[in-house]
Amino acid sequence: MVAAFAFILVLVVLIPVLAIVIDSPVGQALARRISSGEDAKGAGPRLDALEAEVRYLTETVESLSEESEFLRSLVEGPAEDTPRLTRGPDEDASSDSSDG
Fold first, then answer.
1. Rounded Cα–Cα distance for residues 24 and 1 (Å)
2. 38 neighbors 32 (Cβ within 8 angstroms)
3. Under a CB-based contact definition with an 8 Å cutoff, are residues 44 and 38 in contact?
4. Which 8-state DSSP code applies to residue 85?
5. 92 CB neighbour count, 10 Å cutoff
6. Contact 22, 31 (CB under 8 A)
7. How far is CA 65 from CA 12, 55, 56, 61, in A?
8. Residue 28: how many CA atoms within 13 Å on its side-chain side?
9. What was the pLDDT predicted at 35?
């Protein structure tokens, strides 16, 4: 009889405590996590989509950087220390005679 009374008393006290915990922000966050079906390890499709977008943007930035360096080198022209290819005097004569 005493055990049944103690059980009922614990049950009566536990109901309001449980209601307070569920209504708290921690309880609501826990409920959202349980209802969404995500576990601690699973990132979810939203995070996967964000990671894919970051990879795409990183590749795009690298591509634009390479293109910018190439265009800059075209605009600036050849460097002064780069040797240029020129025709020698004997090459001019041989190329002119073979054309005609």
1. 35
2. no
3. yes
4. P
5. 10
6. yes
7. 68, 15, 14, 6
8. 4
9. 81
Q: Which amino acid is at 19?
A: A
Helix (H) or strand (E) holding 42: none
What the block records as the tokens of 23 is: 């209504």
The two structure tokens encoding residue 91:
């090459």
Distance between CA 72 and CA 59 in Å, rounded?
20
Residue type for position 94 = S
Answer whether 84's CB lies under 8 Å from 78's CB.
Answer: yes
Percent of the chain's residues with pLDDT above 90: 23
**Which of 46, 68, 67, 65 lies closest to 57 in space, CA to CA?**
65
| Spatial distance between the Cα atoms of 51 and 86, rounded to a whole number of angstroms | 52
pLDDT tens sequence across 29-72: 888 888 876 555 556 788 889 999 999 999 999 999 999 999 99
Exposed/middle/buried for 38, CB within 10 Å: 0-12, 13-18, 19+? Answer: middle
